[in-house]
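Let us practice reading a record.
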Amino acid sequence: MSRLEPIEGRYLRLDVLGTQYRVYVEQAGAGIPLVCQHTAGADTRQWRHLMNDPAVTGRFRVIAADLPFHGKSIPPEGVEWWKQEYRLTKEFLLAFHGALCRALELDAPAYLGCSVGGHLAPDLALERPDLYSAVIGVQSGLGFAPELSAAMQHHLSYLHHPRIGNDFKGASMRGLCGPHSPEPSVRETTYVYSSNAPAVFKGDLHYYFNDHTMTAADAAGIDTQRVAVYFLTGEYDPTTSPAETKALADAVAGSHFTPMKGMGHFGMSEDYASFRRYLLPVLEDIAEKRGAPRG
């Protein structure tokens, strides 16, 4: 029996907003392209369970990329990035996904993202409706109120401070996991958060708290006839509750929302066995709409 996993990793040169990046990309499976976006401060390791699941990879070509500055995607050459404050913006994320889909020549791909990636799902559906044929947002919500975004700036300063180590980031993410999630999976989830560059988590949350400004009126402009929209949210997530996701889903006519009982913020890594029970029906629906053979 082979001990090699079906996941293959390669590096891809991408031009995004005038800068070339060397981006690490993992792929597994065949069929409908499914692009997975990791959370703030993390990388593609969060998707390893999904990429090893034949129930998914038998019908979907799963693609996961480390954003620049994350995981194996090191900072760009030819840019004095160390003289700039790292901040992730909506403009960059939209451009990055456009460049990724074009470079891989993806045909009507589907999208799956959690947290930062979850907020990006409705932003993609609204502002890039021709890029993905379907988006799945995990822990998605509307934009935060301006007063909350302003208040968060003080707290975010602790995520990149010379007297606070990366262990703090992992420990703080433990509180976002569901109380019933298996301990080894929770530990792995927090480990990933403890092992990325110090400035990355704080910089990513600029998009999460400030640049994702979607209102209910904005969300009402999403055309689900052009791009199918699905939302999944864990009931124990203190950052985006099922009620908050429902408010977003209610504004998107024709979208589908399912709360995930017993789960927290990181379903795909903290408790994949439970997460897949909610994800597989969504993927089945996407595949049926594409006329793919039944799994």
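A brief commentary: The radius of gyration is 18 Å.
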